[in-house]
Amino acid sequence: MKLLAFFYLLLPSLYLSQDIRFIYRYKFVIDTLKKDIITEEITVLDYNNQKQHSIFTGLKHIISDSTMSQDFKKGIMSFPDASMKIRYIVEKNSGNTVYFYTPNHMPNPVLKIKDERKMKWKISGEKQNILGYSAQKATTIFAGRQWTAWFTTELPISDGPYKFSGLPGLILKIYDKTNTHYFEILSVQKQKSNYYVLNDDTYKEAKEITLSAYENMHYNPLDLYRKKAFTGDIIFRSNEEKQQFLKNIDIQIEESKIHDNNPIEIDH
Asked: pTM for the whole thing?
């Protein structure tokens, strides 16, 4: 029993000596008019301890890009997993600089948005146990939402899911006041490789812009598909197929305006 207890005491240092993958479940409400419909997706925070660098995105995104890359090498043309919801990437480095990458494999090129906003945390003495770790409560206001986080100093990594960081330990759980955006850690894993999703070719020429410049670029990506259909960039087998495509796009655009009304960031 003494040996077993000693092993568990060593676990944090063992994990911090190499690359680590933190798996989070992300629950969110897309349509505030239908709060009973909760969407779930498994997300990943890959952390490189030596470089103090992390990548956050959806697990389906990582798998989809990896599959497409392997298919391409075999001469097979494949498409992104249509079921994935989290297609963006958040990159953080040792200087606490945050970059947000827009989804790849879209009509528009990938943008790399530099986010220099700092989070001001209020730490309380309230504690709870999460995944076997002693977690402490902290609160902040970020991008128009009030957030409650639970972090652990037993994993002394100032990081967390999405853009959240700046606490003296890893964020294990974080949710907003409306409880329509909720991240909770599921597991901590030792990485077997240094593969990061940013190795995908679609990110190599990402254009870096400021957050304010991005704010002024409000557009619906579906509009780009519509424009490409009219300009002939998308090839159809018949005019009927083209008209059906445009009809479906118009329906999706209108539905997105009505039902996709609960972004994780309300304002900048």
From this structure: 0.80
pLDDT exceeds cutoff 50 at 3: no
- Six token digits for residue 10: 């060593």
Domain ranges of the chain: 2-218, 219-268
Buried b (16+ CB within 10 A) or exposed e, 134-156: ebbbbebebbebebbbbbbeebe
The partner residues of 189 in beta bridges, in order of sequence, read 21
What pLDDT, on the 0 to 100 scale, is given for residue 255? 60
Topology adopted by domain 2-218 = outer membrane lipoprotein receptor (LolB), chain A (2.50.20)
pLDDT in tens, 226-259: 666 767 777 777 888 878 877 777 666 666 555 5
Contact 57, 197 (CB under 8 A): yes
